[in-house]
Amino acid sequence: MADRFSREGIIRAKVNIEAGYVNNKNDLGGETIWGITKATALEYGYTGPMVSMPQSTALDIYVKLWWNKLYLDDILAINPLLADRLFDYAINAGRANAVESLQRLLNVLNNQETHYADIVVDKGMGPKTLTALKAFFAKRGAEGMNYLMMGLTGMQTYHYVDISEKRKANETFTYGWLGRIWGEMRTYAKALFG
User: Which residue intervals of the chain are DSSP H helices?
Assistant: First the structure.
């Protein structure tokens, strides 16, 4: 069995949360299985019936369309809990939202650019965002990573409240989204404090 905070462990933990086929009329994602929406399946190249998508295909989609695009192997090497946090945020609220939140936080945590330069908030993970993250970690260490994760969690929570206020049908999911974050926080606390 994979370590919970290894690449495989992180991906499998999210697939377990997202398990099963759903097609809820209130969900803008429409048909979804293993947390993969039909639009994402088509982006990957899967054209079969959503209800029949094998878990192995979903795992490959998570690797190619989330893990690799978010440079999570690099982030895993810096801090496994942060890799988990970004992966969860991205698959549940969108890659662009997760990266934008990380970029914004890095910019406001650089002490007016005395620790490292501001980065462009372009919602795309790349070398400049990774360089800023590494500089942040070099300056702030493990404590800083905990604060960064708290900031990401707060921004993810705000995202859910915001989209639920803007679209009443999202209220069907808001309680569950917040429960998901609460469960993740408990997992991180256990990993950090035993």
Answer: 7-17, 38-44, 55-61, 72-78, 80-93, 95-108, 127-166, 171-193
